[in-house]
Each structure stands twice: as C-alpha cells, then as structure tokens.
Amino acid sequence: MAQPAISHPRSVPLSIPVRDVLPWAIFAGVLALALIYFVGAEQGATSLISGDLVHEFVHDGRHLLGFPCH
Amino acid sequence: MVKNLLVRGMLAGLAAAALALVFAWIFGEPQVGAAIALEGHTPHGGHDPVATVPEAGADDGPVSRTVQSTIGLAAAVGVYGVAVGGIFALVFALVYGRLGAFGARATAALLAVGAFVTVSLVPFLKYPANPPAVGHPDTIGRRTALYVTFVTIVVLLGVGAVLLERWLARRYRNADAAVLAVVAFLAAVTAAALLMPGVEELPAEFPAGLLWRFRLASIGTHALLWSGMGLFFGLLAERLLTPSAIRANAPSTV
Ligand SMILES: [Zn+2]
C-alpha cells in the first residue's frame, strides 16, 4: 500500500540479499536434510537409532518416494 | 522476509504432500501390497539363500501393514514434503529476481519444474524406484550411496545449467540461451548416468506389469508433489512479495 505506483508490472522484481538468506539456508537446510535422512535412509543404509521401528514405520513411503530400501 | 518464505514453503510442502499422498495411497499401495505378498515365495533372483527371508514388512514385523500403508505412508510423505518445501523456499529466496523478469508465481513454477527434473525424474531414470522384494538386502548401503551421489550430481549440474543460461543470456536471445543450457544439461546428465555404475538386482521372475505399475505410481507421486509445491508456494509467495495494488492491476503476467 505504501508502495508508489509502478509503471510497468513486468519490471524485474527486487531480489533478496544473499546475506539475508544464508543464515536461514544453513539452519533450515541442515534440519531439512536431517528429516529427509530419517525418511530415506535411517535404519537402512545407516543406523543412528538401534532397531528397525523408524524403517518399518516409513517403509511404504520410502519405497514409493524412490529411496533404496532392502 | 526469509523466515516468512520458509514457513510458507513448509506449508506449501505439506499441502503438496497431501495431494501426493492421495495419489500414492490409491495407485501405489496396491502395488506395494502385491509385491510384499510375492516376497514370501520369491527368492531374490537367486543371489543367495539368505535373501529368501521375508522382508520385515510382513505381518510379523513391529509395525503392521495397516499402519505402514496408512499413517506410516502419510508420515513419510508429509515429513518429506515439509522438508523439501523448506529447501524449496530457500532456493526460491536465492533465485527470485535473479532469473529475469519472472514474478513470484512464475519463479515458483520454474523452480518446481527444475526440482522435479533434477531431484526426481533424472535420478528415477538411472536408479528407478523399486517395490519390496526387488533389492538385495546386502547391497542397501551401496545402492543408497549411489542414489544420493547421483541426485547430488544432477542437482549440481542443474545449478550449473542455470548459471550457464544466465551467462549466455547476456550474449544471445533469452530463448536461445535457454535451449542451449537445456541441451548442455541433458548432455552432462547423460554422461554422468553412463559413468555411474548400474544396479541390476531385479529377480528374473518378478512380474513386469507389477514393476511397471509401481514405478508409474512412484514417479506420479513425485510429479504431484512438485506440481503442488510450485502451485501452492507460488500463490503464498505472491501474497507476500507482490503488493495487492499491483496484483489487482497487472494483466495476469503470471
Ligand atoms: Zn523395503
């Protein structure tokens, strides 16, 4: 609302400075990769938690999402 | 701004995962069930007798088939959707306004196509998804390492192709630069796929029709996930990045 009228809407949108993105990229990137690891590989290729409960629980999703399983 | 985009990415990922989950449940679960039913009787391609031990997904496992095929599947697809949604938002934050005159929705759509091709489609063509009863349990470490390595290589080649396109766009017309970058990407991923070792563990007696239906369901699930991501995130990001006055006046320039 406080923006002045822009004459041509096709003008290149303002980009977000990389230094603003970087801290979030590291923080959330690591978290996201950890979640993907638990869906895709925990108690399969490698095991952080003993047993096979995680593997068994996400089993069908692991197969259908294309991760190697068994 | 970035935090706001991140939250929207995770929400879009969850919504996209819901879409993909319905598809996976209707088209994928019957194939998973059929493959597990085969597992008891089918040796793993005669690799070695140990492989005839049924996969722990059968009734005797710690998690019942009913749980695996419903909330287990939902949890796996949901967590995956939220995680890739977060990464999607961060990549969006980096490329928005840097790919040319694309608005929020067009950038999200382009990014979704790029993610589907590099994260899902190309890796699927080299190391396709397999139903239960196909892989040999002893090679899971090697297969996972190959898969993760190949996905990483393809994503990096995709990033390279975008940088190449940006560089070429300063010299040639945009369309020419895009076509050249796509051709370079296809050549590079083909070379990478040919150089990486293959995985041949399919038992000769495994039903071809079942394998085909399972793989179609798998790639369909990915296609829906990324389509949903591009669509939902595009809508959410546009509300954040484009002031409503402009949205109302713009003659839908995507
Ligand atoms: Zn399995």
Summarize the structure in short.
Chain B: Keywords: Membrane, Transmembrane, Transmembrane helix. The complex is a heterodimer of chains A (70) and B (254). Chain A is mainly alpha-helical.
Task: Describe what you observe in this structure.
The complex is a heterodimer of chains A (70) and B (254). Helices cover 50% and strands 0% of the residues of chain A. Chain A has a domain at 18-65. With 70 residues, chain A is mostly helical. Chain B has 2 domains: 2-134 and 204-249, no CATH class; 141-201. Chain B contains 7 helices and no strands. The longest helix of chain B has 38 residues, at 2-39. At the A-B interface, helix 1 and helix 2 of A face helix 1, helix 2, helix 3, helix 4 and helix 6 of B. Chain B: InterPro entries: CbtA_put (IPR012666). Chain B: This is Membrane protein. Chain B: Keywords: Membrane, Transmembrane, Transmembrane helix.
Q: Quaternary state, please?
A: heterodimer
Helical amount among residues of chain B, as a percent range? over 70%
Strand content of chain B: under 5%
If you compute it from the alpha carbons, what radius of gyration of chain A comes out, rounded to the nearest whole angstrom?
21 Å
Shape of chain A: elongated
Task: Report the total helices of chain B.
Answer: 7
Low-confidence stretches of chain B: 42-54
Helix-strand makeup class of chain B? mainly alpha
Helix content of chain A: 40-55%
Number of domains of chain B: 2
The main sheet of chain B comes to: none
Question: Could you tell me the radius of gyration of chain B in angstroms?
Answer: 21 Å
Give the helices and strands of chain A as they follow along the chain. Answer: HH
State mean pLDDT of chain A (0 to 100 scale): 84
